[in-house]
Amino acid sequence: MTVDTPAPSMSREEYDAALLRLSEASVRRHFDAFVDVPWDHPDFRVDPRDERWVLPAGVDPLGSHPWYRQLPVATQIEIGLWRQANIMKIGLQFENILIRGIMQYVSTLDNGSAEFRYLTHEATEECHHTQMFQQGVNVIGADVPGLPRWIRRASPVIPLFASLAPVGFFIGVLAGEEPIDHSQKQVLRSAADLPPVLSRIMEIHVAEEARHISFAHTFVARHAPRLGRVDRIVASLAFPVIMRVLGDAVLKPTREFREEFDIPREVVSELYWNSPESRAFLSDLFSDVRMLAEQSGLMNPLARRVWRALKIDGRASRYRSEPPVTYSPRT
């Protein structure tokens, strides 16, 4: 596909039908942060000696590193508590930005818009997620900062892009949602025994986030091919940059975290993202959005070079949430 050829856009009827399905799913299945998580149950209390808070090897990059594995168990638990709390804080900060962007965007919509109904459902669910994540941080008791300082400072401005450049905004939404969702799914699939409070928070978030991610994919697939030629080229080049920058903001340990636990610089460099294993993790993480870029006309020769330069290229998913595929060489 050349930079001049837009992908076919889904029809208005197909788009509205997809949004209606998502809206009806939000009515049928939704959660309340203070009804569906039994915060006061004894099993949901956080025990700072509970070894289930140790970061799982093979899922969390830091949890797999020899530097972390050789630490005293008490320190591994402390780091695990801090990291899980910070991921929750990042989640609620991203969702706070998303809620404000949604309100900015829906204020521009016409009466009868299917987007208005679905997006206000999503904003309601995201409000419950911010409550759930903040309460999770509170019960863990770690005073975590969440996102890097530069994003926290820019957060008042970011929601404005929801009406100024909505395709770019919802690409940014995916950049915040996909890494957290991917990481939580990996933990739920791989960890045999999780603290009940962590498991319940992740289960609720993954269940509802599936709809939110589906909408962002559908929005980009509908609107990106309808951009003008110049805007489409700009969006195609911005796509991988947004993914890499915001993906790092979610996944890489913050300066506060590194200083709190005296994590060696070489460990951070290796894990994020110099080792072959971490490169494979990073590539797998963005396989769904590479598929979206292909399908929406935002993958072209120039864009492929940017994806490659940022080290987030690779095979695109064949369908959303496809597990990583390992190919064995023929003998």
Tell me what the structure shows.
With 331 residues, this protein is an all-alpha fold. The protein has 14 helices and no strands. α1 packs antiparallel against α8 (196-223), α3 (73-106) packs antiparallel against α7 and α9 (229-251) runs parallel beside α14 (301-309). The chain is globular.
Give me the oligomer status: single chain
Strand fraction: under 5%
Major sheet summary line: none
Distance between the termini: 34 Å
Which sequence of SSEs, written as H and E, runs from N to C? HHHHHHHHHHHHHH
Structural class label: mainly alpha
Quote the average pLDDT.
91
* Percent helix range: 55-70%
Low-confidence stretches: 1-5, 326-331
Number of helices: 14
Give the number of DSSP strands: 0
- Compute the gyration radius: what is it? 20 Å
- Overall spatial form: globular
Please give the structural blueprint.
Layout lengths: L11 H17 L37 H4 L3 H34 L7 H27 L8 H6 L6 H4 L1 H25 L5 H28 L5 H23 L3 H6 L4 H10 L1 H10 L1 H9 L5 H9 L22
Q: Which characteristics define this entry?
A:
331 residues, mainly alpha, disordered C terminus
Concise summary:
This protein is mostly helical. It has 14 helices and no strands.
